[in-house]
Amino acid sequence: MESVLVAYSGGVDSALVLKVAHETLGPERAAGCLAISPSVPPREVELAKKHAAEMGVRLHLTYTKEMDKEGYVENSPNRCYYCKSTLYTELTEMAEQQNFAFIADGFNLDDKGDHRPGQRAGKELQVRSPLVEAGFTKADIRALSKALGLPTWNKPAAACLSSRIPYGTPVTVEALEKVGRAEEYLQDLGFVGVRVRHHGDMARIEIRPTDFARFLEDGTRQQISQGLHEIGYAFVSLDLDGYRTGSLNEVIFNRKKPLNVIQ
Length: 263
What we know:
Blueprint: E1 4-7, H1 12-25, E2 30-36, H2 42-55, E3 59-63, H3 70-73, H4 79-98, E4 102-104, H5 118-124, H6 130-133, H7 138-147, H8 173-188, E5 195-199, E6 202-206, H9 212-215, H10 218-231, E7 235-238, H11 250-253
Parallel strand pairs: 1-2, 1-4, 2-3, 6-7
Antiparallel strand pairs: 5-6
Helix pairs in contact: 4-5, 8-10
């Protein structure tokens, strides 16, 4: 690649792509672009900007408007297609204006087995996936990131907040803010790798099974229940299957695939 604009989310995958591009091509020919929208937790945005500064890479910001897309808001299983299509269209325009030859994302080999309609949008707009091209798995990415001293090497996965809303339930700014506040509340209590699945008045909490005992201690359980009630949930539940990536996709696959539980 002679020059590249990287779709940077602040996660371990896109951070590695951006850092390697920066070191290989130089700051004039490699930059990242961070998308900001109601579906991205503000805490994640600030952390992504902080990590970009620590890595010494050039970073642009763009405010995406996927909430204006009917296909996104109606929240079908293809929701991610509309999000990525919106993002990559904006990045294509930015790349043309700033003379970047390519756009790259952070998809890796492990992503190919999950339901990821966003990859179709990338193919349609000729977005490159260097980690797939290089044959990198998530484990490879974390190992190389650690070797390079990147601050993101052990960062937990952080999918957009819309992924917490069941397919068929419309995505609203109110619901996204509610989920974001609930997850930040649990993170502030020390829970890592937490998801709050939004089922209307009910919050279904996914945490690592190793955290179940602490979660269910009387004082902690009551504190969590009260905190999420104050955020606006009438019912607060703990998912006994624990935190796993893409749990709402289980509806699509009818649970024929084994659960990807995070320990």
